[in-house]
Write a structure and sequence with these properties.
Strand order of the largest sheet: 1-2
Number of strands: 2
Largest sheet: 2 strands, antiparallel
Number of helices: 12
Helix content: 55-70%
Radius of gyration: 23 Å
Number of domains: 2
Low-confidence stretches: none
Structural class: mainly alpha
Distance between the termini: 48 Å
Order of helices and strands: HHHEEHHHHHHHHH
Shape: elongated
Length: about 270
């Protein structure tokens, strides 16, 4: 198996850890091994008892240990269980880790799963936007909140520019089309404002799933990501809190889905 294929398995095991036994590197590796046996990834006849026999190749065991170290670096795990046992091989899930593990849906700490979910929600996702999303996820996991915020803002801008161009092409009215074409090469905020003003004239003609809560799901998220990107991208000395960066990555997917649903609609219908 590839290294990143083990990451969602490790996260799932941590999410379901009962606490009846101490969390150690070896017990986590054994748990992953048992999971893979039950899923048929590693063939095994009869009852498999983790720790008494090994069916997971050594290369895969190294990959799991590598992921454990990454999760320590990312703040999901911390070495030790108490002041008396503060070191490895014991592990504890941090408060931040508990929050991440308890939340439903995608998590930035499973980047492959996050990107797969993004592609499921927006099948026609532009490859340039995907590059920036992947970079935002990597930067977040490395603790680079400013970089993550700027990259997510770039992905948002790319997606909106595609929506804007698609929308302008769908407009049949010459005067409306001309007005929007006049801001086509301007900065992102004037373009967005011009789009939203014109969009109000056609919103009532759209299917409910495209027009409902558009102020919250489109305006609110677009402006939040744009403002935090500007704060991070200018040399003001300001900092981006990890909680804010995490929230932005969480709300980005439904926002992106709404943008691509609108792109799909206006690529087939007039505006």
């Amino acid at each position: 198996m590839e290294s990143e294929e083990f990451r969602p398995i490790v996260l799932q095991i941590l999410r379901n850890w009962t606490g009846q036994t101490s969390l150690q590197i070896v017990s986590l590796v054994y748990a992953v091994e048992g999971f893979c046996v039950r899923k048929g990834i590693y063939p095994h006849e009869g009852t498999f008892i983790p720790g008494r026999e090994k069916v997971m190749p050594e290369d895969d065991r190294v990959k799991v240990r590598q992921i454990i170290w990454q999760l320590i670096f990312e703040g999901i795990l911390v070495p030790g269980v108490s002041d008396i046992q503060p070191d490895l091989p014991f592990l504890t899930v941090t408060e931040y880790g508990k929050k991440c593990l308890q939340e439903e849906g995608t998590t930035p700490h499973d980047p492959d799963g996050y990107l797969k979910y993004v592609r499921d929600q927006a099948p026609s996702l532009d490859p340039i936007a995907e590059i920036y999303i992947a970079e935002a996820l990597h930067a977040y996991r490395m603790g680079l909140m400013l970089s993550s915020t700027v990259m997510l803002g770039a992905a948002s801008e790319k997606a909106f520019n595609i929506l804007f161009d698609t929308y302008v092409s769908a407009i049949q009215d010459i005067n409306r089309k001309s007005k929007l074409q006049g801001v086509q090469d301007r900065f992102i905020k004037p373009k967005f404002d011009a789009f939203r003003k014109d969009f109000e004239t056609v919103k009532k003609t759209l299917p409910k799933e495209l027009s409902e809560n558009v102020e919250l799901q489109l305006d609110g998220v677009f402006n939040l990501i744009r403002i935090t990107r500007n704060d991070a991208g200018h040399p003001t000395g300001g900092k981006i809190d990890r909680g804010l960066a995490y929230s932005n990555l969480r709300i980005f997917v439904p926002y992106l889905k709404r943008i691509y649903d609108l792109i799909d609609h206006f690529s087939k219908n007039s505006a």
